[in-house]
Amino acid sequence: MKIAYLELMQPTLAEALADLVSLKVSSIRIVPVFLGAGGHVKKDLPRLVMDANPPVKVTIDPPIGEQASIIEAIAAAISKPAGPASP
User: Fold this and answer.
1) Dist CA 61 CA 70 (whole Å)
2) What is the pLDDT at residue 87?
3) 45 closest CA partner among 64, 70, 73
4) Which of 38, 41, 67, 82 is the most exposed place for a label (fewest CB within 10 A)?
5) Is residue 47 predicted with pLDDT exceeding 70?
6) H-helix or E-strand containing 70?
7) Hey, what domains does the chain have and what are their CATH numbers?
8) Whole-angstrom Cα distance, residue 4 to residue 13?
9) φ and ψ at 19, to 5 degrees?
10) Contact by Cβ (8 Å): 19, 25
11) Residues 39, 43, 46, CA angle at the centre, nearest 5°?
12) Is 90 exceeded by the pLDDT of residue 86?
């Protein structure tokens, strides 16, 4: 498993892909840690993968926030009574 960032932080997606390729992986699965499929997931992520052009199969999963278990966990968390307000 490898973590990568799309902007402002390191390692970049290109760096992470290159690291995985150097480890001789046969395929790469990207799991975007976003709540929904906004511009980063729909446009930036596929473009960055294409620009990196790794020599292995790369799949991009739907954003983690769109998975049923995550939606259920968020719903459970927000259905609890709120604690005291912060000053």
Assistant:
1) 14
2) 64
3) 64
4) 82
5) yes
6) helix 68-79
7) 13-75 (3.40.50.1400)
8) 5
9) -60, -45
10) no
11) 135
12) no
Compute the distance between CA of residue 39 and CA of residue 23 in angstroms, rounded to an integer: 30
The tokens for 46 are: 């596929």
Q: Does residue 23 have a pLDDT over 90?
A: yes
**Omega into 11 within 30° of 0, i.e. cis?**
yes
> Residue 29 pLDDT more than 70?
yes
Q: Which residue has the tokens 């699965």?
A: 29
CB 79 within 8 Å of CB 46: no
18 token code pair: 């290159």
User: What integer pLDDT is reported at residue 44 of this predicted model?
Assistant: 95
**Spatial contact of 49 and 30, defined as CB atoms under 8 Å apart:** yes
- Mean pLDDT, the chain, rounded, equals 93
Buried b (16+ CB within 10 A) or exposed e, 15-45: ebbeebeeeeeeebebebebeeeeeebeeeb
**Could you tell me which of 64, 75, 59 has the C-alpha nearest to residue 26?**
59
